[in-house]
Amino acid sequence: MTYRVLALTVAALSALLVPSTQAQGLRQTPSRTVAPITVPQTEQRPADFIVAVVNSDPITNNEVHVRAMRLRAQMEQGANAPDLGELKRQVLERLIDERAQLQQAIDTGIKVDDSSVDQAEQTVAQQNQLSVADLRRQLVGSGMNVAQFRRELRDQLYLTRLREREVDARVRISDLEIDQYITERQNDKDPAAQQFNLAQVLVKIADGASADQVAAAQTKAERVLSRARAGEDFAMLARELSDSPDRVSGGQFGLRPADRYPPLFVEATQGLPVGGISGVVRSGAGFHVLKVLERRVVGMPATTITQTQARHILLLVTPKFSEKDARAKLNDLRSRIMAGKADFATLAREHSQDGSGPQGGDLGWANPGQFVPEFEEVMNRLGVAEISEPFASRFGVHIIQLTERRNTSLTEREQRELVRGMLREKKIDETYVTWAQDVRGKAYVDRREPPQ
Length: 452
Fold this sequence. Notes:
It is a single chain. By secondary structure, the protein is α+β, with helices and mostly antiparallel strands. The longest helix has 31 residues, at 412-442. The chain is built from 14 helices and 11 strands. It is extended, with a radius of gyration of 28 Å. β9 and β10 form a beta hairpin. 44% of the residues lie in helices and 17% in strands. It has a 4-stranded antiparallel beta sheet with strand order 4-3-6-5. The protein has a 4-stranded antiparallel beta sheet with strand order 8-7-10-9. A 3-stranded antiparallel beta sheet has the order 2-1-11. It has 3 domains: 34-172 and 432-447, Triger factor/SurA peptide-binding fold; 189-297, Chitinase A, domain 3 (Roll); 304-409, Chitinase A, domain 3.
């Protein structure tokens, strides 16, 4: 049987806590990083013995060995992986931390019922494009007991819920912190901290050109400038008139730090807004007309994004209504829409089992990253008005119709909220480290023999 990595992401775990009957449930919820669950190939295990006790909970040599082999399997395609002995020492430290946190979760009343584990197992299956039955067959074939796998799912849910309660929920970012962060980035004079995407139209001057030839080139560049400032598409002008090889990409240089542009380009576009067009710039190569396509401060979010508007029909999977049933029903609805016998919005109001149904399945304008990955990946592949084939997400089975895409500039408030999210994630990481050390410090840890 081929080796397959089965990963349960934190986003999936956190999404399990969101009611799937709400359209907002498709949206991502930030959460902490938890070790993925993977399945190593069957192999002979070493002798088992207790390597450490956390309070009254033992950690065995086999537990360390199995986790280390999973991690090594993930690292095999990477570089600079530690040797197996060092990896086992790192794994033991991680297991000690997890045991201390699991005990705190249970002691403080956090509950994980069987239905939550069932949902988590379903999520892992869907992420790996398997049914639960196929997932279990692969687990057994790879040497992992299904009951053991479900215990690990339950432990991950305990850890996620504990960390969300003890760390995530306590982290707040003030407006003053946002102001300070933005001010620091904007006042950073290091050229490498400023990034631009410029486009150009180059009117080239040949070596040894006469004064008349130079004057003709300048006149041509000034005509380009007039047309660009009159609103003509700059990319079309570049493809039609530029003498530079980058004309095939509309004259774009691509997003790069200021110190990777010629100083005269930086000076000519200094202070121009996004969309602004410079005057004619003379260099040794000829005359340039420059347009600012994007301006970004390193560490700050982009000022423009591509937004997507879509609608969907969601059918929930239940013990009495399988994923196969849901796909068949959605295939029928899709066929009716594409044949012109029914309207998508009408069918969404009649059949969709989430909060967007009364609005015809409309999910509104969405920024990148707002939906869970398995939903967004399908949506991003669609053309306008195109309807997807039925597909499964952690919430059920969907079809999507893309209604529109647009490029939009973020408002100041939206940019500030993105900064807030960046700062919050950083603070959560820092807070988690301190919190985990505190939980570990309160636990009694008795180290026995080192893992082998």
